[in-house]
Amino acid sequence: MEVIITDTKNQAEEIVAKIIQSQVNAKNNSLLGLATGRTMESVYSQLINFHKANELSFSSTSTVNLDEYVGLAPTHDQSYRYYMNDKLFNHVDINLENTHLPNGLAEDIPAECKKYEDKINSLGGIDLQLLGIGTDGHIGFNEPGSSLASRTRIKTLTKETIEQNGPIFGANEDVPKHALTMGVGTIMDAHKVVLLATGESKAKIVADAVEGPITAWVTASILQMHPSTIIVLDQESAANLKNRDYYKWAYENKPDWQKHY
Ligand code: GLP
Q1: Pick the catalytic residue: 138, 208, 226, 234?
Q2: Which of the residues 67, 85, 94, 230 could staple to 181 if both were Cys, CB 3.0 to 4.6 A apart?
Q3: Best of 9, 81, 133, 152 to mutate for ligand 1, by most ligand atoms within 8 A of CB?
């Protein structure tokens, strides 16, 4: 696990955007695992800028998103399909047919979840998975107590997650109680993982995930077992880490051949 701590939020977002750019430039037909949430909005703006500057093309790229709310149609402005189209896909040269999210309206949910896993496999597996983190430690919607070997399935959101996402919907009552999410095991199968967390509201959970025990009660902590994970943080989200000085030292002394872009 590599921890990169930047001086500003903007720098953290820029590093993540550059890692994605260099993944797609190195392998245009990459399968990207994408994430939603407020944290990712600036990353997607950066990718749009790279595209407009002719420095990035998604023409052969496919994507799979981590999750989708149960019961929200793709046209609902809080669905994750709407978010992805609005924040990224509609502004770049990706073929929308190559972009995938779980279907939150599926009648047969177990069948939909199996189909999603099959889709990821048929596309050759995820080359790079982008992650945010919930204040309860979730990745995707893998709430505390999720099996660390879980696959795509339905999860009931915690009250904390509903409160965290309530302001985006307008009211907590409007947040769906269920979501379809890639499992922790699905995420762990990605070749490379990049987790971005910014702001002081994430400081406690970032320290638990990065330096605490590996536990199903902080599902992001399993990333300590992933062979190729990069955690990108700003000063605020990194504030509770004990080994900050070492992470900075290691980054400053990184061999050129190991650099991400
Ligand atoms: C939701 C998403 C997560 C995301 C989290 C954090 O719960 N399912 O993938 O990481 O929100 O969101 P934000 O970036 O808005 O803090």
Answers
A1: 138
A2: 67
A3: 133
